[in-house]
Amino acid sequence: QTYTRFELIVVDDGSKDASAEVVAQFSDSRLKYIAIQPNRGVCNARKTGLQASSGEIIAFMDQDDIFDPQKLASHVAYHEANPAVGFTYNAYFNLNHSSTTIRDIMRPPDPVSLADLVLGFPIPPSIWVLKREWALREELWDESTYFRGREIVFCGRLFMAGCEFARVDGVLNYRRYHAGRIFGNLATKCEAELTCQEIVFADARCPDDVLALRDTANANIYLLWVYVAFLQEETILGQELL
């Protein structure tokens, strides 16, 4: 990174690879390694990293994603120039399986709305950068909802609490695609994301115009998992979800 005043906290959530050995190769005081056993899921891993951090601006990055070298510098500059903004995000490249060629570019809406968040969730966690005061809000880390789709609840509650979202210029992330990747428990994953949507819709702060989108938002999640089911030749499940 061109911005060097950062700390990098690696949270190893019960992985079975050589994460510990890879981290041990680096002697850098900015790097901290935390191992969790047994695996408790991505939401708990993010919370663990956040609690171990000391920075005033927090960025998340999932294990198979990449930051552009200008990522941190761009977001820090934006936050310093716009103190009212609590949450920033950016456009990103999707990479083909080789990770050497670009599949497409995704540009989330600017500004993003609560309707965007429930209809299609255009801001994956690796493009999030937010002020610490917002990241530490207790309602974001409700342990009873540590399941797939938690990002919908996280960003939805931030938005309804009054956090200001803004897009930073530049394509500053890279997301990898993996050939032959198979998702397990599709029905459970679909149900979990629907549950997360419903948490947002059931919130007393959710405005009427967003509540009116409930059926369309639910249908969008069903269609996503229908697509995955058919792609994996789980035809009966795909038909049931459809």
Gross morphology: globular
Structural class: alpha/beta
User: What is the helix/strand order?
Assistant: EHEHEEHEEHEHHEHHHH
Quaternary status: single chain
- Beta-strand percentage range: 15-25%
Q: What features would you describe in this structure?
A:
The longest helix is centred in the C-terminal third of the chain and has 18 residues. Helix 9 packs antiparallel against helix 10. The protein is an alpha/beta fold. The strands form two sheets. Strands 3, 4, 5, 6, 7 and 8 form a six-stranded mixed sheet that branches. A two-stranded parallel ribbon has the order 1-2. 39% of the residues lie in helices and 19% in strands.
The gist of it:
With 242 residues, the protein is of the alpha/beta class. It has helices at residues 19-24, 42-52, 71-81, 114-119, 132-135, 150-160, 186-201, 208-211, 214-231, 235-241; strands spanning 8-13, 31-36, 57-59, 65-67, 87-95, 102-106, 129-131, 165-175.
Task: Please describe the topology of this protein.
Elements: E1 8-13, H1 19-24, E2 31-36, H2 42-52, E3 57-59, E4 65-67, H3 71-81, E5 87-95, E6 102-106, H4 114-119, E7 129-131, H5 132-135, H6 150-160, E8 165-175, H7 186-201, H8 208-211, H9 214-231, H10 235-241
Parallel strand pairs: 1-2, 5-8
Antiparallel strand pairs: 3-7, 4-8, 5-6, 5-7
